[in-house]
Amino acid sequence: MRLIGTGSAIPEKVVTNAMLSEFLDTSDEWIVPRTGIRSRHVITDENVEDLGARACLNALDMAGLKPEDIDYFICSNVVNEYITPSLSCVIAEKIGLTCPCIDINCACPGFLYAMDIAETHFLAGKVKNVLIVSAEEPTRMTDWADRSTCVLFGDGAGAAVFTEGDNLKGIRLHSQPDSSKIWQKRTLMPTPYITKQEEDVPLQMRGKEVFKFAVGASTTEVEALLKEIGMSKSDVSYYMVHQANLRIIDAIKKYLDEPDEKFPVNIQDHGNSSSASCAILLDECNRKGMFKPGDILVFSAFGAGLLSAAAVLEW
Ligand code: COA
Known about the structure:
Layout: E1 2-9, E2 14-16, H1 17-20, H2 28-35, E3 39-41, H3 48-63, E4 72-76, H4 87-95, E5 101-104, H5 110-123, E6 129-136, E7 156-163, E8 168-175, E9 182-185, E10 201-205, H6 207-228, E11 238-241, H7 246-256, H8 267-270, H9 276-287, E12 296-303, E13 307-314
Parallel strand pairs: 4-5, 4-6, 11-12
Antiparallel strand pairs: 1-7, 2-3, 6-7, 8-13, 9-10, 12-13
Bound molecules: coenzyme A (COA).
């Protein structure tokens, strides 16, 4: 498949570290050196489906396609206000898509998992154009009295349109199932028969262990993928790494022994926007005109599951 359009949409409200320190025992001095985050966009009166719809329309516009040209629509999302219908259907209704719609919840690597599903449909000869959106509101998952999690996240949506082509050079998905490292639970509607205890628990995370998983999974998958497709690090133009923490990106950079210029970052302005992170970064870099034909983009993302993924896309 070949990428022909990108788009993104982010909430208006910008929350700086100084604003957080007004109600939390935290500071810019603590957050910046440990995470690289200076501010994040946070949903106020917006709906995540509207951000998703705007990102999709921007991507369709760049691709020069109409909603009726899309044969398959994949939405990557961890949480939103609808339990049913799927967020993909809610967004599809807003933008006038009539193709099959599916949601996936693959946490932060969701954009890459969606790319894998899209590629499978192209290889099966079932589609001509696929639209992917990652629309996320992780700020609605954390306890805003818990300084170890709420400072890390921001909201937003990123979208991409793919058409037939041969630009996805390889993709690898990896899982290491373990629900004790990052998790959140919510109660369901009661019934007269439920006897078990259920609880609402905000996002829980073992930060140090997640950090180690992220660096290990990313470097292992990137090196394995490049080897699998017969490329080397010198072929790589840019590493599009999930924007979870600047220290994670720095550790990956150091391990791969690659220069700063190959790692675009926007975490300072967005925080971790879950699966929207890679999609928003891609759109921002694309709209700045950073990529030229033939550039090799290596994507790497990791998160709850634990899941990780890497992909190589030729521009
Ligand atoms: N402001 C001030 N102090 C904070 C704080 C904050 N926002 N968050 C935590 N602290 C405090 C802790 O309470 C702890 O205090 P204590 O020593 O008195 O108990 C101290 O800082 C150290 O906490 P610790 O959790 O050991 O810090 P850390 O160096 O591991 O950094 C993370 C915490 C979350 C920044 C880091 O573990 C991390 O980035 N992990 C990866 C998380 C991630 O990216 N997850 C998503 C992946 S998709």
